[in-house]
Design brief:
By secondary structure, the protein is α/β, with parallel strands linked by helices. The protein has 3 domains: 87 residues, Urease, subunit C, domain 1; 329 residues, Metal-dependent hydrolases (TIM Barrel, Alpha-Beta Barrel), CATH 3.20.20.140; 124 residues, Diaminopimelate Epimerase, Chain A, domain 1. 36% of the residues lie in helices and 21% in strands. It contains 20 helices and 24 strands. Strands 8, 15, 16, 17, 18, 19, 20 and 21 form an 8-stranded mixed sheet that branches. Helix 11 crosses helix 12 and helix 12 crosses helix 13. It is globular, with a radius of gyration of 26 Å. It starts with a helix and ends with a strand.
């Protein structure tokens, strides 16, 4: 057989197959008529592309955006089975993403005793007293989120009054920041906490003048009680998680960066996806690495649990969550200088900088990011120095290492962020919740670098934004409002608190969309309304780009759409 004969022998069948494939594709296209599954039209579509351009209509086929443009062109894509949303000029945003939140904690808050917003210790005692009446002796009372900074006397509580109304029921109440908690006498007895119990590394028992523990547990001291809390059954855990997801969907969120979970939670998420019972996209940060750190097998542990994509991008596990310092409200955030209202206290570090270096090197080796909780200047600077050391050992250009919160910074720290291209992941509502006591904690000079969004933007850095719920409210519009005004919902203080750090509306929207997607290695598929990206949209009843900012918190969500499916209306 000649070479020419051999060539023809294989070429003719190949051409035939190609022709058949083309005919089949044309036949299928003809049957569907090129129609979309969903068309959104007569809308004000903020695409959040690089130019922040606007369109009138969007079309979706399957779970992908297939058209962005005019109403006239969109009409051609409407078929007999196309779902059409005519919005009368309402605003369509890319699906809003919360870049730092705690779904399981939100589920616990929704299911347990909610003391968020209580205005005094006495009010908490009354709520606990009423709950005791409904329980059997020995049953736990678990809840949160108290905040002594909103009480008439801004001091940590003492368990004595609480213990009197709950003698036979252990009580464990987390503070609003989640970095400290309050326990009654019964709970401390079960946890083995006495006056002789030493403070753990990275934690502290607040004690009275007599040396006895007051019941306030700071950071790692919380673990004493956590170890004796009754565990949730799998059914309870799933039910609470679904409650939290529903609250997010109703608030217009299409994606959550879950800040710290373990292998058990990953399996729960996968199970929900397999059953088609997960309505929101999750970017989960792996947060249980202490045991592998001690065993020295981080690389294998991270590689085993890395999950770049599952369930058509409903789940991704591609980063590690670390806690470095504590919170500002409980004076656990780490500073170089003492607290202005607590001389001698510079905060605390939960882990060592060497720990962060070790974790970061292992994460970089397997292609994962690291997202570390840092609030004070010392915590933030030591963290980015640790990142730098890890990057020298494992040089990765597109690392997307993050500092979560970065609440109080110095100009030189921001410059280090820029040089290393580290992402400041921030929560705008923290600024407006904390503005009443920040100066008390750190003094006026350090307050200049508090929630310093403009410093980071002027350095050319993107700021993924979230809420840190349930520390703050789930509603992302509250975060957008705080970012552009730095005021409370009553418009106070006039002009905004440190208004030099306010963001523009465009920047605030990018923070909850494309910048959040970038921080999760997902900006190629999420975060803007462009053809080829996943069809996630948040549709509002007011155009927040044009209304008076004071109206933003009252703006309602009309639709939450994830993957081309209406999840909330």
């Amino acid at each position: 057989m000649t070479p020419k004969t051999t060539y023809r022998k294989f070429l003719v069948p190949a051409i035939t197959i190609i022709i058949l494939i083309v005919l089949m594709l044309n036949l299928n296209r003809g049957e569907k008529g090129g129609h979309a599954d969903m068309v959104i039209m007569d809308a004000r579509v903020a695409t959040v592309d690089k130019d922040f351009s606007f369109a009138e209509a969007v079309a979706v086929t399957g779970d992908i955006i297939t058209f962005v443009g005019s109403n006239k062109e969109a009409e051609k894509l409407i078929g007999p089975e196309t779902e059409v949303l005519k919005l009368g000029g309402k605003l369509v945003l890319p699906g809003l993403i919360d870049a730092h939140a705690h779904l399981h904690s939100l589920g616990e808050q929704l299911a347990n005793l909610d003391i968020n917003g209580t205005k005094s210790y006495e009010e908490i005692i009354e709520l606990v007293s009423e709950r005791v009446k409904t329980l059997q002796p020995g049953e736990w009372i678990i809840g949160g989120r108290w905040n002594q900074n909103e009480w008439p006397v801004r001091e940590f509580p003492h368990h004595e009054a609480l213990s009197r109304v709950s003698t036979d029921n252990p009580v464990y109440l987390t503070r609003v920041d989640g970095n400290s908690a309050f326990a009654n006498k019964k709970a401390m007895e079960l946890a083995g906490i006495t006056r002789d119990t030493p403070d753990p590394a990275g934690g502290k028992f607040i004690r009275g003048a007599d040396g006895e523990p007051t019941g306030v547990l700071i950071n790692q001291a919380m673990n004493f009680v956590k170890k004796v809390l009754p565990p949730n059954t799998p059914e309870q855990k799933e039910a609470k998680f679904k409650m939290a997801v529903q609250a997010c969907i109703e608030a217009g969120l299409t994606g959550i960066h879950e800040a710290g979970i373990g292998p058990a939670e990953i399996e729960l998420y996968k199970s929900l996806i397999d059953r088609e019972e997960l309505d929101i996209r999750l970017y989960a940060m792996l947060g249980e690495q202490e045991k592998p750190v001690l065993e020295g097998d981080l690389v294998s542990y991270f590689a085993e649990h890395k999950l770049p994509e599952y369930g058509n991008h409903m789940l991704s596990v591609r980063s590690i969550k670390l806690f470095f310092d504590g919170a500002l409200g409980s004076r656990g955030a780490a500073f170089f200088e003492p607290y202005a209202d607590d001389p001698g206290n510079t905060g605390l570090l939960r882990v060592t900088p060497e720990y962060i270096v070790k974790v970061t090197k292992a994460a970089l080796e397997v292609g994962m990011g690291v997202n570390t909780h840092c609030i004070g200047t010392r915590g933030t600077r030591l963290c980015i120095d640790a990142y730098e050391e890890a990057l020298k050992a494992v040089p990765v250009t597109d690392h997307r290492l993050r500092v979560e919160h970065a609440q109080i910074v110095r100009p030189e720290d921001v410059e280090k962020f820029r040089i290393l291209n580290i992402i400041p992941s921030m929560q705008p509502t923290h600024a407006t919740s904390d503005m009443g006591f920040v100066a008390d904690r750190v003094g006026d000079k350090r307050t200049e670098g508090a929630y310093a969004w403009r410093w980071f933007r002027d350095a050319g850095l993107t700021i993924p934004m979230g809420s840190d719920f349930p520390v703050e409210a789930v509603n992302p519009l509250y975060g957008i409002y705080s970012a552009v005004t730095r005021q409370d919902h009553n418009g106070q203080p006039p002009g905004g608190w440190h208004p030099e750090h306010r963001l523009t509306m465009e920047e605030a929207i990018r923070g909850f969309t494309i910048w959040a997607a970038h921080a999760a290695f997902q900006d190629e598929i999420l975060g803007s309304i462009e053809t080829g990206k996943l069809a996630d949209f948040t549709i509002l009843d007011k155009n927040i780009l044009e209304i008076d900012p004071i109206e933003i918190p009252g703006t309602k969500v009309l639709y939450t759409i994830v993957g081309g499916k209406i999840r909330y209306q």
